[in-house]
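Quick check before the chapter quiz. The format below is the same one you will see on the exam, so make sure you can read both the input and the output lines.
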Amino acid sequence: MRRLEAPDLPPLRERVMSMPITGLSPKWGKLISKMTHEQVIMMLSADGDDDNDLQKAWQAVSLAKVKTLSEYIADSSLNGPVLVGVWNSNVREAYLEELKERHDKVFRTVHGGTSRAARDKIKDEFNAGSIDGIVGQMAAMGVSWNLQKSSSHVVIAQTHYSPGVIEQFYKRVFRYGQKNPVQLDHALGDHPVDLAIYKLMRQKEGSAEKVLD
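Here is the expected output.
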């Protein structure tokens, strides 16, 4: 179950954004339909194994959302910096390139190899509102990231089966000191792989029902 929130926080507004995905092999949908939840977790969490079928499908669906979702992220950044969460490095790089080249937006990136000095600089820029946002690998942005000063918008661009991963990430913005309602968007591809991973995350969280926008 989701942990109790700190007192006196503004509302958290969650939305699921369904995004069309075309051109992917139908075998991915057949694959996921035959797998148990335990098999999904095992294949997604296999350390260093980007070659198993489910990892390939997950990344393919995530990359297929980049162009459409980047447009939404760019428009949203006009109202303040946006925190964008991903898991895989190739997905992270795709968003950075699309936001810069097509939309002329300044987004920084945070990953496991980001130095402490670079992290501090990015944090300061984000909180000052001098950049359009951060595309962060969710595992690399732990509890020391306080990003509530100038942002109230988090986009989960690449869904994940662990509710704890998602929660820790959006709470970089939804935390003590936040003055505005926080928008949390789960951007899901209209594809069995993304939908199954999201459903698994919700079931693990203890919330089986979620309204799709």
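If your answer matched, good. Residues 208-213 have pLDDT under 50 and may be disordered.
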